[in-house]
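Notes from hallway chat w/ T.B., transcribed later so I don't forget. T.B. wanted the structure written out for a chain they're using in a teaching module, and asked if we could keep both sequence and structure tokens in one place. Agreed to drop them here.
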Amino acid sequence: MAGRDGAVPPRTTTPRGDASRRRLIVAARDELVERGGQLEIDSVASRADSSVGLIYRHFGSRAGLIEAVVDDFYGRFRAEVLHDDPASAATFVARERRRIEQAVAFHYADPLSRVVVTHLHVDGQVAVGEAAQIERLVSDVAGVVAAAQRKGEVPRDRDGRFVGAMVVGGMRQVLAVALATDPRPAEKRTAKALWVLVAGVLGVDPDAE
């Protein structure tokens, strides 16, 4: 992430610097949510009781700040949904159905979700960063599919990368529609619809125990 003079800012390593960086990310997240995907550097600095210069020092640019917010969003999603085993002793179908429910709950609970899935595609740098995040999610799903195939839980004729792309892409589109609908569909309804979609892509019975 280059600054105004093209230089890449050094990464913060001090506790005070990390706290300052975190405060700016939270302020930027609130700004994006309240303004429907729009962000002004001066406004973020005011929200965080900080300075514009400090924003450029930490993130290099406006796009760099937005990218950091998006990275934080996907990092929390992976930690709370993808990297958490919702039912380690359950069957693959029960476990992954629960994971879909957790994914929907995460997006419904976080007001930034609607911004991420609908409003962050206009800036080139942000789009590149988001594409990398989506690619990582696709790889994560492909890994889950490969592990399930080794155990005989998912048909071996499924291409893990294709499944990952369809699951991630389908989920984003369904959530984009659900989060933009007023009134919003019930969380359970959205989760059930998504699970039927995902089960079909995986080639498993959505109602199996």
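Follow-up for T.B.: The two ends are 48 Å apart (CA to CA). Might be a good example for the class.
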